[in-house]
Design a protein that fits this description.
It is a single chain. By secondary structure, the chain is mainly α. It is built from eleven helices and no strands. Helix 6 crosses helix 11. The longest helix is centred in the C-terminal third of the chain and has 21 residues.
């Protein structure tokens, strides 16, 4: 039965249904008709309220990360803490991440993915670092962090999934720490 409630409740129903479907089915496998059916409304109302499936996706898919723990930890533990935060993500964050990655062939979604990478990962890390290459180290660490999520959630890397949380935190924490605060390389001087 199609919904005949208020404009606000119809919009909220569409928004909720779309968010749920995009997280579970991804962008390409979620149709406007399916969203409308889940919301109990007409597909034309989905377009009337949100203009397009892509704009509806962008309105519903937001990845958030509490960066407070990254700001409070001593710099020499930043890699380990970031690894812990990444491994503690799940639930809706995983669904949003997967939806963004799988929808990344759409230009506006790719822009959202780029902005999410910049604001959630690069900026908080760069804010903790000093030196002329602070931006590069922050970007490299953000790439390692994103790679971990990709390996676990997209590729389903069984070798990593079999490791316990403690082992993953230790290994990725060390890797991230080396990128964030590299040891000075002692290169012998050639006479």
């Amino acid at each position: 039965m199609l919904q005949t409630g208020s404009r606000v409740s119809t919009r909220e129903s569409i928004h909720s249904a779309a968010a749920r479907l995009f997280r579970t089915r991804g962008y390409s496998r979620t149709t406007v008709r399916r969203i409308a059916a889940e919301a109990g409304t007409d597909p034309a109302l989905v377009i009337r309220h949100f203009k397009s499936k892509e704009l509806l996706f962008l309105e519903t898919m937001h990845l958030t990360l509490d960066v407070g723990p990254l700001l409070d930890v001593p710099l020499e533990r930043l890699g380990e803490r970031l690894a812990e935060l990444l491994l503690d993500l799940g639930g809706s964050a995983r669904g949003v991440f997967l939806a963004l990655v799988h929808g990344g062939d759409e230009p506006h979604i790719r822009d959202r993915l780029r902005d999410t990478h910049e604001h959630l990962f690069v900026e908080p890390l760069r804010g903790r670092l000093t030196g002329p290459d602070a931006d590069l180290r922050a970007r490299t660490a953000a790439a390692v962090a994103g790679g971990l999520l990709y390996a676990l959630w997209v590729a389903g890397d069984q070798g990593l999934l079999r490791l316990g949380r403690t082992e993953l935190v230790s290994r990725y924490g060390t890797l991230l720490q080396e990128v964030l605060t590299p040891r000075e390389c002692l290169v012998p001087q050639v006479p």
